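My current task is to audit a protein record that another person submitted. Alongside the sequence sits a line of tokens, each denoting a local backbone shape. Please read both lines and tell me whether the tokens look consistent with the sequence. Do not assume that whoever made the record got everything right. Thanks in advance; the entry in question is below.
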Amino acid sequence: MSFLKPLIGALTAITLVIAITISLSACTAQEKQAKPNDVTIQAAKEFSSRPLKPEEAEEVLEVTGENYIYGQGVGRTVANVGATVLFPPYGIYLLGNALLDYGGYETYYVTDMLPDEGKDGWNDVYGSITSTPGRIVAGFAGENYRDDEEANNRLKKVLDKYKKNEQAKDNRINN
């Protein structure tokens, strides 16, 4: 029973840090952020005017799924679900960040409070942990591991192909 006091103290401290972080972020003015390099945002804008054909949608979903499986997607999901199970308020934090991101606003990360050296170190450790499942699956499947940059490039390549096809089709109609 002597282990309960330190455990309760640690959980209380963690809860206070999260509550203070949420409180401070709620008091700041939010500005919408531009995400010019986000391929999914660009795709949503470009293809919102017309639906993708079934074969186009199939290829986009295939590339997106492979990026998730052979990249950090599985590892990030496992880390987030595990952290939420172990500490349920983390789920509220994730939901808040998802809503901010969906609305086009800047998201908040605890690592934003760290100095650059500490942030880089943490991100390296976190990246090596969350990339492990993707590296293992990619190795067994005979595929290359896809970091975020590679995943975005693959998706952009597919979307650009359909954009060029659509532009060529529009040119034929206009001529």
The two ends are 82 Å apart (CA to CA). The mean pLDDT is 81. Helices lie at 4-26, 39-47, 54-69, 73-86, 89-102, 116-141, 148-174. The chain has one domain: 33-174.
